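Most newcomers find our protein records easier to grasp once they have seen one. Nothing more is needed to start thinking about how sequence determines fold. Here is such a record, shown just as it appears in the course material:
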Amino acid sequence: MPRGLQLVIIVLGLVAIGILLYYIWRQARAISEHRLRQKKSEEFQAKRRDEMIESIRIIAMAVEEDQVEYSEACLRLKGLLDHVAPDLLEKSPFRVFQEVHDKIQHMPTHRARQATDTRFVEKMDKERHAVEQAHSDEVRRAATAIRHQRFD
């Protein structure tokens, strides 16, 4: 084989090696960045979950100390438990959060409540208070239980 052809083949081989090394480097960098994003996402999700669990405990303490209406507590706890431990909403004593939520979720809140006719709001308040009264003991027991619940 002529010497010039050998040099051309060697140069082509070196160019191919260089291209492959560049491709490998880019892929390794992309994998590294993906792992870093994944780790940050997992840390964010873990922190968010811990904050939700803390919120659950704070709301439960507020229920125990009568600092919050039971209906509001049930709405908030049900929403938080949907993200943290939805299976608990099917178990006793926590089932009451779902039950109260289902009975009052149709009622207007916040701005919608302010924009609603006063007589209708009063009617809804009476209905809400009746639901709270009917489930007050269950809500208090469930709040105490959820405050001591381990979320693994």
Observations:
- Residues 3-64 form the longest helix (62 residues).
- The CA atoms of residues 96 and 139 lie 6 Å apart.
